[in-house]
Write a structure and sequence with these properties.
homodimer; alpha+beta; 60s Ribosomal Protein L30, Chain: A; Phosphoribosyl-aminoimidazole Synthetase, Chain A, domain 2; 7-stranded mixed beta sheet; 4-stranded mixed beta sheet; 10 helices; globular
């Protein structure tokens, strides 16, 4: 028999304090925190996009090594990235928390600080959720709701043979940043092959890990201008997420390893650790960039519009027949099957 | 450093199996399981109602004493009850699961069986979610989305002085059922004061605990016919949930203890254990009945329409001035402050 001891009054006043501090007004919001459900209004025909995640202490994050603000920020950003990959405008956020008794209310506020830091960047309003005591650790549930015009969204299933394959931004930075954070905690004497990395590179990579950016504007642009045939966000890494697009679209893919966008910082990190930057780019997850496909006739428009909007877009390959499989041409020119990386989500 | 080991392929194929088995078609559903977000379409102006819950093993339920199907059923029903309390039509469900490695896929399917058993009763479609491995136990996140016509919903804040207070169904059954289940596991010799209860009463109470019913039709009726001024569902118990309505509406309340609807089975249980049935009705939570207020001029319509529809509705009190507080007239005729029960959510 398990019991959830809820001191209703303590819970109620904490929720009220959260509501006072974080609940904002939002277009279409009828009722936020404080009823049986949150209520939002729709006037015109629209498509609503809903994504949800569950994060558990000791599983998705560890409070010994991650501060609560970072946990909140990254949790929100992972969901913002899912909405970005649909080409939708993120609108409303609901949060559930199960909180251990050892937890101070300042830490609860810090989680919300991180969540709302990410949400404010994209005008997302906290509209509801739930809170309870926990005996087993901290648990965080997130639901994010976005909107597009009716009939307009980026799906995983639309890629066609011959389409170009693109990514936004650079790949591998988050994995490099995570490893740098992990190194700090392990004994440096054991890492004889480690060469120094400039403080600027180190900071840039760690920041990409702790404060990733979801490509919300890029997703909306690709969707509204009808440029992309399929899209997904890179949370599991290029290898895993490209596989999802190929599965859903019934196609194969050829990736040009030499074309993968790798930041100078990630390049420097790879060199300092005698690693292949392409391997980092392929295996590294949680970059929260967008991976998308587009018909070749869109290429000029994509390049021109991305340039005009200041978006970083790189063509990295071509959609092939299903029988081709998923392959990558290494920088040595040899074509190999894309490695099936069983990606480990991490949280420094 | 915590890592979530996600065997992407195993997770992916389990999600595919779940999708094949449980994902149904639904009005307005554009894309269900299998993309970055679920997508639903709206055509007419509407209000959307969103509620979310997080349940953790060892906190909200215990796998040693609750079977996975019951866990799923009750989790869905608790959220259906929230949507019922808004007077909304429940439509779409999203589920997140973090699953311990010791868990067999049959148990995962059993959770979904329970969830969908509850959802099918109300034509709710599973449209998305997420799944990951867990090192810390089983965690279940639920988001339920319902709809009403624009401008039409039952809130907690609408109660006015002089309004009648009503509940649906009977109160205290779930608590009695829970205690019966707990007794089975404790030594019977210690309970000398326990008198036998008929198998029919025992079954009825345990069923009310394990398979509660959300008052979805009753909520829609009260909302569509504009009968109620405020409503909430009884998850924390009459004492706690009446307090929420009073807080949000800025009023007090007078409850007639003798009027509380108590089932014959609960009455028999209380007598057999020398308990006050009114105490059970006031303190007992998770009945998932509706508590609502309505102007006195609606009383005749409420009685007539409830009768015609086969709904069980009981008037239990009157909304008073805030200064009156929240009081209950016991069956001995004495008015006392309503006890502030720190309700313990439980899960047999």
């Amino acid at each position: 028999m398990a019991r959830r001891k809820v001191s209703s009054i303590a819970e109620f006043s904490l929720i009220q304090a959260i509501a006072r501090r974080f609940a904002g007004r939002a277009s279409g919001l009828i009722k936020g925190i404080g009823d049986d459900a949150a209520v939002v209004a729709t006037k015109e025909p629209a498509w609503w996009h809903m994504t949800t995640d569950l994060l558990a202490e000791g599983v998705h994050f560890d409070l010994d090594t991650a501060d609560p603000t970072t946990i909140g920020y990254r949790a929100a950003m992972a969901n913002l990235s899912d909405i970005a990959a649909m080409g939708a405008v993120p609108r409303y956020l609901l949060i559930t928390l199960a909180i251990p008794r050892r937890f101070k209310s300042a830490s609860v506020f810090a989680i919300y600080d991180g969540l709302m830091e990410a949400c404010r960047l994209h005008d997302v309003a906290l509209i509801g959720g739930d809170m309870s005591a926990s005996r087993a650790g901290l648990f965080l549930g997130i639901t994010l709701i976005g909107a597009t015009a009716a009939g307009r969204a980026l799906f995983r299933h639309g890629a066609n043979i011959g389409d170009h394959i693109y990514v936004t931004g650079t790949l591998g930075d988050s994995l490099a940043g995570f490893r740098l954070l992990s190194e700090r905690r392990s004994s440096p004497s054991k890492n004889r092959r480690v060469r120094p990395l400039s403080p600027a590179d180190r900071c840039a990579l760690i920041k990409r890990h702790l404060r990733p950016s979801a490509r919300v504007k890029e997703g909306q642009w690709l969707n509204q201008e009808r440029l992309a045939s399929a899209a997904i966000d890179l949370s599991d890494g290029l290898s895993g997420d490209l596989r999802h697009i190929c599965e859903e679209s019934g196609v194969g893919a050829e990736i040009d390893g030499g074309a993968l966008p790798i930041s100078a910082s990630c390049q420097a990190y790879a060199e300092s650790r005698h690693l292949s930057p392409v391997d980092l780019a392929v295996a590294g997850g949680e970059d929260y960039e967008l991976l998308f496909t587009a018909p070749p006739r869109m290429h000029a428009a994509i390049e021109r519009q991305a340039h005009a909007r200041g978006f970083c877009i790189t063509r990295i390959g071509t959609v092939r027949h299903r029988r081709f499989g998923i392959r990558i041409r290494d920088t040595d020119g040899i074509m190999r099957p894309m490695p099936v990386t069983s990606y480990e989500h991490f949280f420094a």
